[in-house]
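Why Stage 0 sporulation protein A homolog? Reviewers of the renewal asked for a concrete example.
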Amino acid sequence: MNIFICDDDNLVCEQIKTLCESYYIEHKLKRPDIYIFHSGEDILASDIKPDIVYLDIQMSGIDGIAVGNSLVKSYPAAIIIIITSFPEYLDEAMRFHVFRYISKPVESKRFMRNLEDAISEFNSIGGRIIVKCKGKTYVLSAKDIIMVEVNPHCRNLTIHTVSDTYTTTQTLASIKSMLPSGSFYQSHRCYIVNMNYIMSYNNSRIYMENHLYADIALRKYNDFFNTYSAFLTTLR
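Here is what the prediction returned.
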């Protein structure tokens, strides 16, 4: 992952860099490559693809609004977070789909929450999800997930991959929000299946690879049938 920080105040740049590094160390994640720029001209001259961008609005030369508009044209998937003391510029910034807005001075707890959201968004776009399991944070490839199921008795859910299982207290809705919608289907309030791993099904159950199965809610069978049929046509 490439994180860009663009601000004409070097102290702000160093603070954001330190907070980013602290998050990755705390969550035992592979550290990103962090690039610091002090002007709009510098960041636009870079030939490195940005994944997450922390962008100041008021800078000498090319301002943050112009930089943001240019970045999203070149890198539509870039996640842009505005860092500024001037909220009156937010309306203009929203035109290039700003992901979050953080006011100066930067408050560390809010920054960490927004960074976690940005990483989740990045992994969702890139087909990866973040799972917290037994005090550790794992980054899983969505294509390796066979299914997700909720244990209704203890509120935990289990993510079954081709090679392992992960139990977490994250909600099914939060996991679903990170999964690519084109290949995953929620067949029941307790199950999400990866349609790439379906072996067979009937009107009440879906049989998956690795001897797994998921229930189909009665009211969802017709929708499942139509969705899965459409999915199969994309594989031909």
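Residues 85 and 105 are 8 Å apart (CA to CA). This is the kind of structural detail the renewal will allow us to pursue systematically.
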